[in-house]
Amino acid sequence: MAGVDKRADFEDLLPVMANKLGGEGLINELCNGFQLLMDKDRGVITMESLKRNAAFLGLQDLSEDELAGMVKEGDLDGDGVLNQMEFCVLMFRLSPELMQESRFWLEEELKGYGF
What interhelical angle do 64-74 and 84-93 show, nearest 10? Predict the structure, then answer.
């Protein structure tokens, strides 16, 4: 399935980007990705803007159902669109390796506070 392959490629690249760019650089790149995909008039990623702009991120082979699934998975407030925060959270959730590394650093930091 094309969507599975694209997701696997993304999962492999996000940690590499994080290591190369650092935390702030990665967040800036995610914000740039959001800007590419969003509906310029509404300031959010809609299903229509995602379909229209998916090729910018190499997602042109995903079906409409797969794109709708991405929006649904990331839509935390249930409004049917992705705001910038929801998009960034979704990108991190799609990368288990990055989430595991983030958890490690959070636990290390909390140890310093006696947790």
Answer: 100
Q: Are 47 and 71 in contact (CB under 8 A)?
A: yes
Nearest Cα to 36, choosing from 21, 18, 55? 55
Q: CATH says 18-112 is which class?
A: mainly alpha
Among 25, 43, 24, 40, smallest CA distance to 84 is for 43
Per-residue pLDDT of the chain (115 residues; tens, 9 = 90+): 444 444 444 445 667 777 788 778 878 888 888 999 999 999 999 999 999 998 877 778 888 998 899 899 999 999 999 999 998 888 877 776 655 665 666 676 677 777 6
Decide if 103 contacts 64 (C-beta within 8 A). Answer: no
Query: What are the sequence ranges of the domains in the chain?
Result: 18-112
Yes or no: say if 17 and 77 are a contact pair by the CB < 8 Å rule.
Answer: no
pTM of the model: 0.67
